Amino acid sequence: MKTENVIEAKALTKKFGDFTAVNKISFEIKKGEIFGFLGANGAGKTTAMKMLIGISKPTSGQANVAGFDVYTQTENIKKNIGYMSQKFALYDDLTVRENITFFGGIYGLSRKRIKEKTQQLVSELGLEEIKHQLVGSLPLGWKQKLSFSVSLLHEPRIVFLDEPTGGVDPITRRQFWEMIYKAADRGTTIFVTTHYMDEAEYCDRVSIMVEGKIEALDTPKELKKQFKVDSMNDVFLRLARNIE
């Protein structure tokens, strides 16, 4: 049973001058949960994530991630999380194997552990034949799956994924979500932002942001029931119309 909160936010706010990008959002996320952070482009999803991972200081409000405060313990947060940005994060001019080794070193793994993790990752992803190829030569879908796997190298408590399936084909998107399920089954908490409303169906719970505010938060099943619709896309459309 999932009971331990690994992320807690209360009235978390981020302002840029007179513009409020994130407006007093509150939520809790439990260990091993797949939490979808949904909203249209520009809704404030990435800004909120940057506060949680310790690279942007909130204007006000409270939050802790993996038990650490987002104001005063950002270095501890970074050691306990994995992160995959919407822009591909690995190095195109290094091979698959070199990228794994490089990031393993950044995450502080021993040489022995890096070797073990490299073999495991190459085997799991079926990369044996291309492990010496430059990452820049790989299709986008393979790059994204490799980037996700690398974000898990140091076995973080939480992985933040910012639009991880943007631009990839539907089959690759499905494969990527299968990887997410496996990580969650091992107890890793997944915090994923997306503007693909169909991906909300894959999450344990979802929040929907509209213009910097969380306007809905529940399981996909309960949200569809609440709004009396058949899909999460319809939930979003109904919510957007209500806001207008």
Short account of what is shown:
This protein has 244 residues and is α/β, with parallel strands linked by helices. It has one domain (33-53, 80-243): Rossmann fold.
Blueprint (SSEs and pairs):
Layout: E1 5-16, E2 19-30, E3 34-39, H1 45-52, E4 60-65, E5 68-69, H2 74-79, E6 81-84, H3 96-106, H4 111-125, H5 140-151, E7 158-162, H6 170-185, E8 189-194, E9 205-210, E10 213-218, H7 220-227, H8 232-243
Parallel strand pairs: 3-8, 3-9, 6-7, 7-8
Antiparallel strand pairs: 1-2, 1-4, 4-5, 9-10
Describe what this molecule looks like in 3D.
- The chain is an alpha/beta fold and 244 residues long.
- The protein has one domain (33-53, 80-243): P-loop containing nucleotide triphosphate hydrolases (Rossmann fold, 3-Layer(aba) Sandwich), CATH 3.40.50.300.
- Helices cover 36% and strands 27% of the residues.
- It is built from eight helices and ten strands.
- The protein has helices at 45-52, 74-79, 96-106, 111-125, 140-151, 170-185, 220-227, 232-243; strands at 5-16, 19-30, 34-39, 60-65, 68-69, 81-84, 158-162, 189-194, 205-210, 213-218.
- The strands form two sheets. A six-stranded mixed beta sheet has the order 6-7-8-3-9-10, sandwiched between helices.
- The relative contact order is 0.17.
- The model has no long low-confidence stretch (mean pLDDT 91).
